[in-house]
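Protocol step 4 of 5: obtain the predicted structure for the target chain.
Materials: sequence only (see below). No template structures provided, no constraints applied. The aim of this step is simply to have a reference model before the mutagenesis design in step 5. Sequence pasted as it appears in the construct record:
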Amino acid sequence: MNAIDLFAGCGGLSKGFMDAGFDIIVGVDNDQAALNTFAKNHNGAIALNADLSVQETFDEIKRIAGDREIDVIIAGPPCQGFSLTGPRNFDDKRNKLYLAVFEVVKQFRPKGFIIENVPGMATLYNGEIRDEILKRFRNFGYNVECRILCAADYGVPQLRRRLVFIGVRKDIGQPHFPEPVFTEEEYRTCRDAISDLPSREFELGQEVDEYPCEPQTEYQRLMRGDCKVLHNHVATNHTQMVKDTIALVPQGGNYKDLPAGWGESRKFNEAWTRYHGDKPSRTIDTGHRNHFHYKYNRVPTIRENARLQSFPDDFVFLGTRTQQNRQVGNAVPPLLGYHLGLALKSVIESGENDD
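Step 4 output (structure tokens):
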């Protein structure tokens, strides 16, 4: 089946769909650094830098697709996309990112679609935004459901929660969410994910390196695959003050665990958070330097965060370190995307076979 990825970023969601057997035709975004990463890692898919609020972009997508049918549309519109004008003004031009998703679905009439967003959208304006999205797609001829999913339930070593809409054309069937693969007791942990990577305690590292040891866990074997070299594992050069401060924080702790007079510059919920080696990580951010390695006195490297997001090691990130951090933090975990892709594919194939 053919899929297009809107607001693709570096392509975490579409990477998961690729692994589930989809052919990704095009990824659309306006972040060129993220699109460069997308193009490198998606088997010839076109990375299109374009504005999704104009008709010319839809025409370009159609040109790229050619005579190929667009079976599925996946999208992760930025969470800032909704204006604060309220649900009665849903068509406010400031909501153009979301309106663009409706327009693409209307124009291409795919068999199914998936939209991913932050959990807070489910309750925004007492759920009126969520209900408006469901209503509009149902009026277009789709059966649509939404649910908040936790990435850790699907093998991602991270407690990342996301609101997911799944739509299936009414002539094909009903949406179906993937069943959790892991229970809370079985969740993959930070140690499961990154304990095989070089410590970088005494050197910053380089963009391409060698693995220092064999994989230690089944998850590490999964992430390495056939990859023979290590990419994007470069440590941040912290000041001694930062190293001394985080050294005082225990695994799973944060600024509240610091002695009086330490870490005064940061006092908010995520400040000076040290991951716990025996638990999944917190939600990976875009590089704000609030989260620290469970063992070493530094923030995670790009590769460590990519592992915690379930990006395989042969998925190479391009751009500056700031750009790479943003790409990793904004992405949908590929493993979550993989299970969503399998679920949607199953529904579509079952519906087509019934015909």
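Step 4 remarks: Residues 334-354 form the longest helix (21 residues). Residues 15 and 320 are 21 Å apart (CA to CA).
Proceed to step 5.
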